[in-house]
Amino acid sequence: MPKVGMPNIRKPQLVQATMTVIDRVGLHSASISLISREAGVSSGIINHYFGGKHELLQETMREILRQLSSTVTAKLNDLPKTAHVQRINAIIDGNFVGYQARRKVANTWLAFWCYSAHDTELKRLQKVNEKRLISHLKIELKAMFEPEQADIIVMGIASLIDGLWLRGTLSPEGIDVGKARLIINDYLDKQLTFYSQKQTYES
After folding, report:
1. What are the HTH tetR-type domain coordinates in residue numbering (predicted)?
2. At a CB cut-off of 8 Å and minimum separation 6, what does 164 contact?
3. Any long-range contacts for 107-110 (C-beta under 8 Å, 24+ apart)?
């Protein structure tokens, strides 16, 4: 009979082992055998707790997204709801620092990102993350711009976050969060200036 509470120990252990193995050998070579060996358990444990490798991969992706959501939410909760630029920077930081910046986490996410084009569930999880990012940004930007303009800027910032994260993950130096913040804020400042001048002209 399995020990009470063991799933709460084994499941996170296997998720961490999955990320370590993907970081080392890549997604396609991350076999159940390698993952179980990394976790120090038998291969049958993965089938017992997850039903197989595919379900373990999905849970690994969910854990990365849970950590991201938790980080961004915590950062936003520390700021006044009227501090819109600061809150946008908190969203940026949440995507680039802490848990998300760990090499094995970033490389696992990159592997999933590529693979999601051929996997329905991973694609769905990517869409959930994308919608969450856009929702966070819309709340802040719609308080600063007209709705139509805000929607355009949301997509601009979301694209910059994704692009800078991808470049940083592929770079040997890793993600430079200071530079990412500088680039995105420069884009936002230009939009604020343009929008302010447009309103002055139209009035």
Report:
1. 8-68
2. 96, 175, 179, 180, 183, 184
3. 107/19, 107/22, 107/23, 107/169, 108/18, 108/19, 108/22, 108/23, 108/60, 108/64, 109/61, 109/64, 109/169, 110/166, 110/169, 110/170
What are 179's two structure tokens?
Answer: 């530079």
| Residue whose tokens read 């001048």 | 197
pLDDT of res. 201: 59
Q: Which domains does the chain have, with CATH numbers?
A: 62-202 (1.10.357.10)
Alpha-carbon span 56 to 65, nearest angstrom: 14
pLDDT at 3 over 60: no
